Automatic annotation (TrEMBL):
<keyword id="KW-0812">Transmembrane</keyword>
<keyword id="KW-1133">Transmembrane helix</keyword>
<keyword id="KW-0627">Porphyrin biosynthesis</keyword>
<feature type="transmembrane region" description="Helical">
    <location>
        <begin position="42"/>
        <end position="62"/>
    </location>
</feature>
<dbReference type="Pfam" id="PF07219">
    <property type="entry name" value="HemY_N"/>
</dbReference>
<comment type="pathway">
    <text>Porphyrin-containing compound metabolism; protoheme biosynthesis.</text>
</comment>
<keyword id="KW-1003">Cell membrane</keyword>
<dbReference type="InterPro" id="IPR010817">
    <property type="entry name" value="HemY_N"/>
</dbReference>
<keyword id="KW-0997">Cell inner membrane</keyword>
<dbReference type="InterPro" id="IPR005254">
    <property type="entry name" value="Heme_biosyn_assoc_TPR_pro"/>
</dbReference>
<dbReference type="InterPro" id="IPR011990">
    <property type="entry name" value="TPR-like_helical_dom_sf"/>
</dbReference>
<protein>
    <submittedName>
        <fullName>Heme biosynthesis HemY N-terminal domain-containing protein</fullName>
    </submittedName>
</protein>
<keyword id="KW-0472">Membrane</keyword>
<comment type="function">
    <text>Involved in a late step of protoheme IX synthesis.</text>
</comment>
<feature type="domain" description="HemY N-terminal">
    <location>
        <begin position="29"/>
        <end position="131"/>
    </location>
</feature>
């Protein structure tokens, strides 16, 4: 459209200016050393106008050439960008499919012409990690830092994740502590710290971290409560090994009711008491815990109690039959406690019921003891053999019994 208007203006201008120029009188002289060149004024004016038009056309040509050059350069640039973008896409697909070397090569190539170098190098670091190429992994992380220095949190988190997966726990911990200094409330930093402390078995650090996990909503409130109970259960065991039962009892009294009421914590404390042979304390603890919630493992530990009044201990366990009349573990516990109370017939009944529900070597062993006390040594030997067969290979139980019968 612009060219059409220019041509029209030039035509009309020529029609108007042509007659005016032709009527201009006089001459124009150009002096060159000793030579003088004479032009009619109308001719001189025409030359000047044509020169201006020529200069204008030359300017248009130069602009056109420059524009064409930029388009050519841009085409090559766009081509490189398109190629790098496709390499990045193919690299991410290869990474998702587990083709680690292919992914690494494509992602590194794609980083040369793309403005997504950070993403490319972080993904390449993951691909190198999967190949156990830790030197390349660290190099790509350094390249990512150079490409985008402000992304230290993203780079640090990737570095920590990869080192945790490679079990470089101390290095990962140093990285996460540094990130926590930079961003004390970053949820994912806190989450990785919790995961790392769990792998290290540093339950005290986890307990210290709990308020941060809750405040920054790293996990749901229910999950944080679960983490707290597990951490305390593990820590009580460590305290028992390190400082003894007195320290465990002191710590147990300091725990919140919410923790003490949880089965995991109750079981951890019960196992410590059983290991320390604190049977009176264990009996009271299990009785209180069972009032809140039935736990099979507590019923099993209750069978270990060597009480001064075994009949009373047995009577307490028998009250649990109302809840679990066919529980094999409880029936075995009742059989063991009956033996301690010298109630041989009752012990035999409970142990046979336990075996009927779920055969176990332990039940067979104590049933053999009951038969011995009842004066039936042959039956006792048969039960012992059966229990042994059940422990070694349940499928061979009947063959062992047959062999014993033949003897």
């Amino acid at each position: 459209m612009k060219l059409k208007w220019i041509i029209l203006i030039a035509l009309f201008g020529g029609l108007i200016l042509g007659p005016l120029i032709s009527n201009v009188p006089g001459s124009t002289y150009i002096l060159l050393d000793q030579t003088a060149i004479e032009f009619k004024n109308n001719f001189a004016i025409a030359i000047v106008l044509l020169s201006l038009v020529g200069l204008w056309l030359l300017w248009i040509l130069i602009r056109y050439l420059l524009k064409t050059s930029n388009l050519t350069v841009g085409w090559f640039g766009d081509r490189n960008l398109r190629k790098a973008r496709q390499q990045t896409i193919d690299g991410m697909i290869a990474l998702a499919e587990g083709h680690w070397k292919t992914a690494e090569n494509l992602l590194v190539k794609g980083a040369k012409f793309r403005d997504t170098k950070l993403i490319n190098y972080l993904a390449a670091a993951r691909a190198a990690q999967e190949q156990d190429d830790h030197k390349s992994r660290d190099q790509y992380l350094q390249e990512a830092a150079k490409a985008q220095p402000d992304a230290h949190i993203a780079i640090g988190l990737t570095q920590a994740q990869l080192k945790i997966r490679h079990r470089q726990y101390e290095q990962a911990l140093a990285t996460l502590n540094h990130l926590r200094e930079l961003s004390p409330h970053h949820p994912y930093v806190l989450k990785l710290l919790h995961q790392l402390y769990t792998k290290l078995g540093d339950w005290e650090r986890i307990i210290e971290l709990l308020p941060k996990l809750h405040k920054n909503r790293v996990y749901s409130a229910e999950h944080v409560a679960d983490i707290e109970v597990i951490a305390w259960a593990k820590l009580l065991t460590l305290i028992a090994q390190r400082d003894g039962l007195t320290a465990v009892n002191e710590q147990w009294l300091k725990l919140s009711k919410n923790v003490c009421k949880r089965p995991e914590a109750q079981l951890a404390y019960a196992e410590i008491l059983a290991e320390q042979h604190q049977y009176d304390q264990l009996e009271l603890h299990i009785k209180d815990s069972m009032k809140q919630q039935w736990q099979e493992r507590l019923a099993e530990l209750y069978g270990m109690i060597e009480s001064q009044e075994p009949s009373r201990t047995l009577a307490t366990a028998e009250t649990w039959l109302k809840q679990k009349p066919n529980n094999a573990v409880l029936l075995t516990t009742l059989g063991k406690l009956s033996l301690r109370a010298q109630l041989w017939g009752k012990a035999k009944k409970y142990l046979e019921q336990s075996i009927e529900q779920q055969p176990s070597a332990e039940a067979y062993y104590y049933l053999g003891q009951a038969y011995k006390e009842l004066g039936h040594p042959i039956q006792a030997q048969e039960v012992f053999y059966t229990g042994l067969a059940n422990e070694v290979s349940p499928q061979k139980k009947h063959q062992v019994i047959a062999d014993f019968s033949e003897e």
